[in-house]
Design a protein that fits this description.
The structure is a single chain. The protein is mainly β and 115 residues long. The protein is 0% helix and 53% strand. Strands 2, 4, 5, 6, 9, 10 and 11 form a 7-stranded mixed sheet that branches. It has a 4-stranded antiparallel sheet with strand order 1-3-8-7, with no helix packed on it. A hairpin with a 6-residue loop joins strand 4 and strand 5.
Amino acid sequence: VQLVESGGGLVQPGGSLRLSCETSGFTFRSYVLSWHRQAPGTARKLVAYIGTNPTSTLYNESVKGRFTISRDNDKKTLYLQMNSVKPEDTAVYYCSVDFQNSRYWGQGTQVTVSS
């Protein structure tokens, strides 16, 4: 199982960014996928997850209405559209899948929100 995040970077408050997570090694369309984030000195937290039915989503209250999780089963890629970003969104963002009783993570992509 491999998960590779991309799309992070420096963005101004109020701006937008789209993260991608390219995957391989499992039947993408059959698994729930999620985004998590970890700010320095804090625990990793769930940002959003998406079910095998792409209309089934759940968001952390702190990002609800600003972030959108989506998936492309043909491309085996997970996305996180981040709009109206805030300085408190600064963190390393990770995608994740639970596969055969193990949780797999990507290497993470840094998002920094600053003017």
